[in-house]
Amino acid sequence: MGKFEYKYDNPEGPVDPATISLHIDGRQEPATREEFYTNYPFYKYWTSDSNARLLSPEGINIYIHIPFCIQICDYCFYMKELIKSKDQVEDYVESLCMEIKMISERYSLAGKKVNSIYVGGGTPSVLTEPQFRKVVETLHKYHRIEDPEFAFEAEPGTFSRNKLEWLRACGVNRISMGVQSFDDEVIRLSSRKHTAAQAINSIRTVQDTGGFEVNIDLLSGLAGESMSSWEASIATAVQQQTDMLTIYKMKTYANTVFFKKGVHSKEIDLPGETQEIAYMQRAMEICFSEGLDLWSTFAFNRKGAQSVYIENTWRGEDMIAYGASSFGKIGSINYQNLNNIPAWSEKVRNNTMPVYRTFSMTYKDMIVKELLLCAARLFSYSKKEFVDKFGFDYFCLIPDVIDQLTDKGYITNDKEELVLTRQGILFGDFVSKTIASSVKNAFARDSIGFAY
Ligand SMILES: C[S@@+](CC[C@H](N)C(=O)[O-])C[C@H]1O[C@@H](n2cnc3c(N)ncnc32)[C@H](O)[C@@H]1O
Ligand code: SF4
Asked: 19: which DSSP letter?
């Protein structure tokens, strides 16, 4: 092959850009050699607060983990340890405050509005006033805290009126109390230390102190439960007139005593799947007949009470995680802090991110998350909200599945909203999983990067 020779074919003299302009989008675009592209996006759009730009403009939410308990319950899968000394908690609080400063500075969070704060555990109500005040003062120093929902988890045996007063003075406005059962034998068989009477007393103390929205947690599927003990427990829970009543299905995680003794070695009897469905069905009947409304598929409320923190988490708002083992989300990155308290603390004290693992969400993961956590869990979910967020109507993508869910009585297919029937509420996570995985499969032809 011969050598390539470039033939310059405009020997007539200089080129006039005006004569070679293009007509684009109704405008005449003269040819220009002014630009000299070496990168994209152009540097003039880059800013020094780009970490903060990872975060959504609506504001942030904060989760703080307090991993200390006065008892270790046989069903509990959360990261926690038995409280042994004051120093143990003091050291933890010290590291927590260092972490708040470090993360806020690293991600330029000081100006971001805080929509909700959730102090969970473990048992946050084991903290003393000086310990909690130190955390709250640090939060105020490094975050923009105006009037967020400020939720605090408590255990019936670990607080008093005095504690509630200083919690309120610190800005806490929601108490979520773990009760699990109002049957003394069921409580005892879970290795909890309080009695039903103490739990009732504690709920009353919170209500009498005032200034808090109150939620109580019950667990369906505990050891020693019978239909009559369950009915009595639900009736007692409803009588307490709390703003919210959450009923979790007890899951037997591998790191719990109930897993070892109930699932693995079968030393103890746990209610089976059919039994648990009957319990939850009965709980719904009692709650509805007593005038409670539904906030999510497993939480009942009165007068529109809600959990801002939980809803914001489900809707995918950014979450800043503080404390060992806590989960957070910044932009499309989900992350979890180190589980081991000394390892987490050492990282923080060395001014290093204490992260143990991360997951980077693709656009499709975000769709699945929205459908899995919001569409059914919030039992009525506007289609417009989904279209505004993702640009398409998922009902159109999976018409057969929507028809089946309607025909089999899980949802009422109205044009504007996904609304669960009672059966759909009982099987809420099944409905959301069906919708989410069907949408995922409908995308399958060009599918990349789905998490599950
Ligand atoms: C971290 S605990 C905090 C409450 C406080 N430590 C207490 O026990 O009173 C939060 C809630 O998680 C729920 N929970 C714990 N283990 C669970 C499990 N295996 N399955 C479902 N929910 C569980 C319980 O209802 C508990 O009230
Ligand atoms: S349920 Fe509460 S008190 Fe019991 S181990 Fe879990 S966090 Fe601790």
From this structure: G
Q: What's the pLDDT tens digit per position in 263-295? A: 888 888 899 999 999 999 999 999 999 999 999
pLDDT per residue over 178-209, tens digit each?
999 999 999 999 999 999 999 999 999 999 99
Question: Residue 178 sits in a domain of what CATH number?
Answer: 3.20.20.70
Q: Using CA atoms, how far apart are residues 434 and 440, in angstroms rounded to an integer?
A: 10
Q: Look over the chain and give the mean of its residue pLDDT values, rounded to a whole number.
A: 90
Minimum mean pLDDT range among 110-119, 148-157, 370-379, 424-433: 370-379
Report whether 142 contacts 105 (CB < 8 A). yes
Q: To test the ligand 2 pocket, which listed residue (65, 71, 74) has its Cβ within 8 A of the most ligand atoms?
A: 71
Do both 424 and 302 map to the same domain? no
Taking the centre of ligand 2 as the mean of its atom positions, its distance from the CA of residue 331, in whole angstroms, is 31
From the CA of 75, give the closest atom in ligand 1: 19
**Token match 């610190």: residue?**
170
**Which of 293, 313, 333 is the C-terminal boundary of a domain?**
313
Q: Are residues 218 and 99 in the same domain?
A: yes
Distance 264 CA to ligand 2 centre (A): 21
Cα–Cα dist 74/276, whole Å: 18
Q: 321 has which bridge partners?
A: 63
Give yes or no for residue 255 CB within 6 A of ligand 1: no
Of residues 72, 95, 97, 96, the one with CA closest to residue 83: 72
- Residue 185 alpha carbon to ligand 2 centre in Å: 17
Total number of domains in the chain? 2
Helix (H) or strand (E) holding 300: strand 299-301
Q: Is 123 in the pocket of ligand 2 (CB under 6 A)?
A: yes
Ligand 1 atom closest to Cα of residue 80: 1
Tell me, letter by letter, the H, E, C secondary structure of 138-203: HHHHHCECCCCEEEEEECHHHCCHHHHHHHHHCCCCEEEEEEECCCHHHHHHCCCCCCHHHHHHHH
pLDDT of residue 7: 65
Q: Is the pLDDT of residue 448 over 50?
A: no
Q: How far apart are the C-alpha atoms of 280 and 219, rounded to whole Å?
A: 10
CA distance 420 to 409: 9
Measured at the alpha carbon of residue 328, what is the angle toward residues 326 and 334, in degrees to the nearest 5?
Answer: 120
Q: Is any atom of ligand 1 closer than 6 Å to the C-beta of 72?
A: no
